[in-house]
Amino acid sequence: MQFHEAPNMYVNHVYLFVRNLRRSKDFYSGILGLSILQESKQAITFSANGIDPLLTLEQPVVVLPPIRRSAGLYHFAMLVPSRKDLAAVTARLMKEGYPLVGGADHAVSEALYLEDPDGNGIEIYRDRPADEWKWENGKVLMLTEAIDEHLLDELNGEPWGGLPKETKMGHLHLQVANLKETEKFYVEGLGFNLVAAYEPYADFISTGGYHHHLGLNVWNSRGVPVQKGTHVGLNYYRLVFPDTQMRQEAIDRLLKSGVSIEQTNERMFAKDPSGIKFELGI
Prior knowledge:
Blueprint: E1 10-17, H1 21-31, E2 35-39, E3 43-47, E4 53-58, E5 72-79, H2 83-96, E6 102-105, E7 109-115, E8 121-127, E9 135-136, E10 139-140, E11 168-175, H3 179-190, E12 193-198, E13 202-206, E14 214-217, E15 233-240, H4 244-256, E16 262-264, E17 267-271, E18 277-281
Parallel strand pairs: 1-4, 5-8, 11-14, 15-18
Antiparallel strand pairs: 1-15, 2-3, 3-4, 5-11, 6-7, 7-8, 9-10, 12-13, 13-14, 16-17, 17-18
């Protein structure tokens, strides 16, 4: 099953603020091998396949340092097609001497963790086949164990060609101010399903039986919503609905609960209870 297309709801585009656009360009295109879809003096949009936007970086005229202990980005996660692709990314970063934060086997996936030059969290991961995931009472088993030390054995000396064209925005993990309030917003307001709960610290939600399209945690941000000012980190993200009817139904639920909807041209935006902005796309 394809978890990042209709009839599912998922994140496909993340927008970040950075301090130095040239430095970020060197990292995302030079080291990770993403292609540049659009570029201006203030912003760059990157793509894996040269067609679909994946990540947009903007360097504001005035940008403040990140606030690590407030709501916002924990990490965005790029999904590569295979274990061999994950091994290739690992080998590339090691060759470049780029520091890794860690790696983990989550039972449903294997993941590599790092930060971009501004400290924005990144996960690059591959999924295990969905029929190998373990479910009980509607909840999926996700662990955090050491990644297989033989990962690089997948490689046969092929040259690095950049992240595969099939790379997708697999999920987005957010730091939030109030876990239960945010869970209610995304589940009851937007229509996600709670598929893993590690209360009172983290929740994982999805549609269509995926292990998670969104992660929510309060490990560093409990009680601290998005702070005023333009800070390095998450600007907003784009949430894709299967069709206009499902989007309108979600908008109606949000409006009924007192959430404001901002319309800019034909694009619609809202903020979750922590003040995290997102686009309601189709």
